[in-house]
Amino acid sequence: MTSRDEIVMFLDDTLGIAAVKGDDGACNGLQVQGVAEVRRVGLAVDACLEAYERAVAADCQMLVTHHGMIWGGIKSITGRMYEHVSFLVKHGLNLYGAHLPLDMHPELGNNAQLAKLLGLADVAPFGEYRGEVIGFSGTLPQPASPKELARRLSDALGGRPVVLEFGPAEARRVGIISGGAADDVTQAARAGLDAYITGEPMHFTYQLTRELHANMICLGHYHSETLGVRAVGARLTERFGIESVFLDIAAPDAGWT
After folding, report:
1. How far is Cα 30 from Cα 98, in angstroms, rounded to an integer?
2. Global confidence as pTM
3. Contact 192/173 with Cβ under 8 angstroms?
4. Is the separation of the CB atoms in 37 and 59 below 8 Å?
5. Distance CA 57, CA 225 (A)
6. Contact 94, 29 (CB under 8 A)
7. What is the mean pLDDT of each run of 10 residues along the chain (257 residues)?
8. H-type helices in the chain, by residue range?
9. Phi-psi region of 179 (alpha: psi -120 to 50; beta: other; left: phi over 0)
């Protein structure tokens, strides 16, 4: 067993929670306090009742999520917020959330992990969001078509990527920003990248991508953001020797919204 406070301190420090300046409304860090001792940690993309229920069923004392429960502060503990808080408190389940800190982390982050999955070389920060550079760009070991890149990522992550091919037939230099960042295809085109990888598509970005003569691969918001929490779980096991379990609770793939 490891103390909750020790794990929280380690995560805060490792993920650089205090250093992230981009204000997207997310509460990063320990959101709901549970039991003091932890022997198993659950990892999930989203803080939701299903994740809490599955964490408790898996005998987890802490749940680490990418999309936390608290956005823009708490105005009242009623309705859905009451259901979340009461379940967590009743079961003594600690809830820890890390949004931008986990997107942008140079090793454990969603974008860094996607770059690692593709074997990118010359990896460099790319893509500004609310004053923070949160993505990465790099060079593929071998040129590949956007459809081939999408296939590789789908094989590893699941989902049904949406592929827009309006740029070079083969990509060498690619940029990555996970989640809901389809409009940042503009930054990829400005940087001279051959392809841009993100999460969910947005309606207006179809014509935007076409007019930019760019390639964009949309993995689905969920499927683009599973690697970060998985990496955090592996790091906690390595550091503290505690068990970690990934709770795969996939949301349906979004279409053009």
Report:
1. 9
2. 0.95
3. yes
4. no
5. 23
6. no
7. 97 94 85 98 98 98 97 93 97 97 97 98 94 95 97 96 97 97 97 97 95 98 97 98 96 63
8. 4-15, 49-57, 79-91, 100-104, 110-117, 146-157, 185-190, 205-211, 227-240
9. left
